[in-house]
Amino acid sequence: MTTNTTTGHLIGYARVSTDDQDAQLQGDALTEAGCSRIFEDKASGKNTDRPELTAVLDYLRAGDTLVVWKLDRLGRSLIDLVGIVDGLRGRGVGFKVLTGALSAVDTTSADGRLFFRIIAAMAEFERSLIKDRTKAGLAAAKAQGRTGGRPTVINDDLLTVAKARKAKGESVNAIAKALGVSRATLYRHLPDQEKL
User: Fold this and answer.
1) Is residue 44 annotated as a catalytic residue, yes or no?
2) Which neighbouring-strand residues pair with 10?
3) Active-site pick, 17, 36, 44, 109
4) pLDDT, tens digit, for every residue of 10-35?
5) Which letter, b or e, does each residue of 161-174 get, where b requires 16 or more Cβ atoms within 10 Å of its Cβ?
6) CA dihedral defined by 177, 179, 185, 190, rounded to 10 degrees?
7) pTM for the full predicted model
């Protein structure tokens, strides 16, 4: 088996987005880089259910290095990527990228560790910006009298009909079905005394 420059093995992870795509290019590159085992997912990067990613993360041991062909094969976003690689680092597992703009990332080297720390700082900054923008957007909308969430499906006319039918003894299930709304929606809008 091929080992990395520390004490463990090079373990590859490849991902293609659909069944129509082929991971052969990634697999060849990972094999050429010296990976003793390669895990392969066929799933969109946005898909949180990537069983082979889970399997490779479970398989890796301290001293091993996870190798990917390109950075976008591993993480859905910079924040996601930093979380995965920080988790690896905490377990004593290295990380290496073979191609692309960030192929200098090799956390088994001093330069790679420094570079990744810079990336991690940028991800933290991005998280803060997203939080700040979200808060500012919600505050601006609230100041203009708008609230977030879905628009209500119960207007005053429907509520009047629902109350009248309830007063005649109809069940909430029957009323909700007749009005084309869910029972939960109807319950949210009926006064407490009319919910029984």
Assistant:
1) no
2) 65
3) 17
4) 999 999 887 667 788 999 999 999 99
5) ebeebbeeeeebee
6) -110
7) 0.57
